[in-house]
Structure formats: C-alpha cells, structure tokens
Amino acid sequence: MVIEYDGSLYHGFQIQANAHTIQAELEEALLRLTGERVSITAAGRTDTGVHAVGQVIAINSELGIPPEKWGAALNSCLPPDIRVLSSEEVSADFHPRFDAVRKKYAYLLYRQRQREVFLRNYAWCNDEKLDIEAMKAACNYFVGTHNFKSFCAAGSAVKNYERRVESCVLHHQGPYLNLEIIAAGFLYNMIRIIMGTLVEVGRGRYPAAQVEKIIAAQDRKAAGVTAPPQGLYLLQVDYSGE
Amino acid sequence: MVIEYDGSLYHGFQIQANAHTIQAELEEALLRLTGERVSITAAGRTDTGVHAVGQVIAINSELGIPPEKWGAALNSCLPPDIRVLSSEEVSADFHPRFDAVRKKYAYLLYRQRQREVFLRNYAWCNDEKLDIEAMKAACNYFVGTHNFKSFCAAGSAVKNYERRVESCVLHHQGPYLNLEIIAAGFLYNMIRIIMGTLVEVGRGRYPAAQVEKIIAAQDRKAAGVTAPPQGLYLLQVDYSGE
To answer: I need a surface site. Which of A40, A242, B54, B187 has the fewest CB within 10 A?
Structure first.
C-alpha cells in the first residue's frame, strides 16, 4: 500500500511503547478491520514531525478483501491525517525496505513571516536572507557516491557510511525553497543535515565549495545544523522493474 | 494590529465561557505582557475552524510600548498559531468593525484525494467532478446590491439583509478553486452558503442563471449547502482613507 500522512501529531512512524505513532494507528485500524493482529513492514521509518506522501507499507493477510479494496477499507478505520492512496498484491517475499531501489525525499523551507501560522508544521520557516544561487551550487557536491559520515547523526550504529546520491536539486518558487534528493538509501538525519549545511552556505558562513571539504572530513561537527523535522517529506519509493 | 491565525484548533474568534478562542488567547497574552486586563475589539468574528491572514484588532493601552513594537512583544506571549503581523497607533475612537469600509474573504476548495492529509484543515476537500465554467458564470450574479436573505444562516437576528458585493471571482489553479469575494459587510455564513451554492451549480444540480432566482426567493432553503468552515479565510479589512 502507498500511504500519506501528516506527521505533525505523531512520534514518528515506528511503533513504540506509550507513544502515538503512525504504525500504531495503522495496526490498530487493521485490528479493527480484520479482527486480527496484523504487523506492518514499511519502506522508511520517518521521525517525529516528518511527513510522507509516498510511504510504502506491506502486510500479510489471509482475509478475502480484494487487493485493490484494502485502501478504502482501511481508510474507514484510520484518522484523517493518515490515508491509504493505493493498494496492490505483492509476492509473499516482498519487503518494502529491503526491496526498495531508490527513495525520493523533499525538504521544504518557507522564507517569509506572513502566513507562517499555516506552514509552521509543514516547512522550516526561516526568513533570513539567503544566497540561493550559492545553495544551488552547493547541491552539486552531494551528487555521487561519497562517505557521508559528516551528514549522519552522531551516535548512529551504522557501519558503512557510503551512499550514492543520484540527484540533489534545490527548487526556488516564490517564498519556498524545496530540496529534492534521490538516493538508494540515506543515513540517519542525512537530508536534514544536508539542508542545514545548505542554509549555512546560504547565510554565507562558508562558500559552496566548502561542501567538498565537509564531506572529506567524515566528521559530523564539520557539517551544518540539523534542519527541523517538519520540513521533511518522504515523496516516493521505487522498486526494481518500475 | 493586523493578525493572522490558523483557526483549526479554536472555537472561533470571540471569547466565550469554557472554550478555546482566538480572543481569549490574545487577551491572555496581553495580560501576561502588560499585567492588565486589556479588552479587544476586532473587525470580524470568525467561526470555529475559520482562518484569518488579515484580521484587524484594536486595544486601548496606556503602556509605554511604542506602537510599532506591540507585534513583537505580543508574539513572544502568543501560541505559534496566532501571529501579529503589524501594529500601529490609531485614534481613540477607531473601531475595527464599525469603521471598516470593505472586507475581503477567500474560500478554498481542494479537488483531489492526494495530499488531502495536509489540506483537511485548510480547504474544503472535495474531489467531485465540477463544471468550473458554470461556477465562474454563477459568480457574476452575486455582484451588486441584493437582498441576501437566501444566503444567511436561518435564525440570524439581523434586520436588514441587503448587502453590496463589490467583487466575486472564482480562481482555478491546479487542484485548487479559490473564491475571492469583497463586500462592505456580510451576513452570517453568507460566503459559506455562496460557496455551497456554487458547488451545486458545479455539480449540475441547477444552471448558473438559477442564482438570480435563488437570490429573489429570499429563502435560505432555496440556496445550496453551507460549505465547511475550514476553507474560509478573512484576507483583508480596508478602512476609509486607504
């Protein structure tokens, strides 16, 4: 199933004790719908406040609901900030995370004070003067296969910091800056640290070319701040054969 | 002061016992800032769930805060879904409602299922097939001075139903339909009933020209449904000399 959610009121995707999470809502809806405990696997574990418009989840059920009807059925049991967009049958060994070949995320920055009340949960509201051309130039340094240790939250348990960024483009439209980034996989907080670093470039703290040195440093302290979660959106997950 | 707010979590603007309202939040912030009970007058009393980007409020204070500094001062005491955009000194007899010469509202309709999780509190999410050209044509019948009793919530205590609509235009952009309407004043629920009636025209329930007959009927039952509150925005209030 492809699902979308407004992450504003949730402690992230993954189920955890005593916390309001997307996965818990989905599993509760499945219990109400099917009368069974059905566990979910997902393409990505989004953090507190992070949104999705193309999260992919998989379930295993013997129930006689036709594959394409699961969306409407589950939506009738879900809160209005979580919606199933589509559903289809997959092979029994499909795994939404391990079988993903590519993920696309967006990070939205909103650059004016007016109407901030409507954007505060959906973008990084930041009205500082930013050099957008420098930020766009800096994006190019992220593309390719690099050791992204400088762009991974400190304390992450990961062993291999190498990731291949296929595309990293900053779009500028009116009061919005929208970073779109595609990779086979990302490190923990990687996109938020990339965005924080781009904003440092925009502020003029260092030139765009400094990004090359920040990557080479393999040190989280070399990079910029971690941008706030509410600007981040999981847009799309691709699988082989698509 | 010109203020904006996300009305999603409020029982409307006006203060009332045991309800979370915009006015109560503003008066509480003023109490915290000034140590005094300061009462507020406002240009319009928006309903539960209705938003504003250009509400105008006035207060009377002897405090030595310079007029243009009130915004920043109050914002430090207000929740993030209410913001003061600007503040200026006015004459002692200024009244934001009685002195208003013109108000502009918008009503936003969102026409697709995708990304509805983000729009559910900010637009009428309605993916029915609608004849937009017929709706645009119907808008013209609202312009001018008419008795708008058919477009006033039943039970309203008002005596005079005559209002002059200066402008009523439906903008169509991608998945959005945005009605912008300007008048010196509006009846209770007038814009939401106009929007509900436009949607009936869009559905083909009656032709655009029927609006003329609905106005002439002077009967609430002749018009369409009351559109839901979350699509309505108080955009701007004008005063003479502006």
So the answer is: A242
Secondary structure of residue A233 in the 3-state scheme: strand
For A117, the closest of B6, B117, B118 (CB atoms) is B6
Residue at A91 is within a domain: no
Please state, in angstroms and rounded to a whole number, the distance separating the CA atoms of residues B209 and B140. 10
Q: Where are the beta strands (DSSP E) in chain A?
A: 2-5, 41-42, 51-58, 82-86, 100-110, 124-125, 144-147, 162-173, 176-183, 232-239
Measure in Å the smallest separation between the Cα of B121 and chain A Cα atoms. Answer: 10
Q: What is the mean pLDDT of each run of 10 residues along chain A (242 residues)?
A: 97 93 96 92 95 97 90 96 96 95 98 95 97 98 98 90 98 97 96 98 97 98 97 97 58
**For strand B162-173 and strand B144-147, is the pairing parallel, antiparallel, or unpaired?**
antiparallel
Residue range B108-136: mean pLDDT, rounded: 97
CATH number of the domain bearing residue B175: 3.30.70.660
Residues B67 and B143 in one domain: no
* B47 contact partners, CB below 8 Å, separation of at least 6: B12, B189, B229, B232
Residues B152 and B214 placed together within one structural domain of the fold: yes
What pLDDT does residue B240 have? 87
How many domains in chain B?
2
Which residues in chain B have Cβ-Cβ distances shorter than 8 Å to A122?
Answer: 118
Domain span at A223: 100-239
Structure tokens at A202: 């925009």
Q: Which of B25, B55, B118 to mutate to test the interface with A (most CBs of A within 10 A)?
A: B118
Tell me the pTM: 0.93
